Inverse folding.
């Protein structure tokens, strides 16, 4: 699977985990130079608390376009630190 934004590959892996229709990429498969921490956090009743990254490429910023669960609940342990995308990031 490959995640792209602004015609740039930001993550690529043959080992994603699909949860609720979203592909979660292993932390080591993202291209960290395009990611910066976001102050955004949300809560999922069964997965736990999510943290977000902004994606920045060539001066364009997609705020909160990637999320991950640093300490997921037991039911979602398989996506610990894996990264998923939305907000215009194409995953195919």
């Amino acid at each position: 699977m490959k995640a792209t934004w602004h015609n740039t590959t930001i993550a690529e892996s043959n080992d994603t985990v699909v949860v609720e229709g979203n592909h979660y990429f292993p932390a080591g498969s993202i291209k960290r130079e395009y990611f910066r921490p976001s102050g955004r956090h949300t809560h999922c009743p069964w997965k736990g608390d999510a943290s977000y990254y902004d994606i920045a490429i060539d001066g364009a910023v997609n705020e909160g376009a990637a999320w991950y669960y640093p300490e997921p609940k037991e039911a979602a342990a398989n996506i610990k630190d894996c990264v998923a995308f939305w907000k215009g990031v194409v995953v195919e």
Remarks:
- The chain is about 0% helix and 55% strand.
- The mean pLDDT is 97.
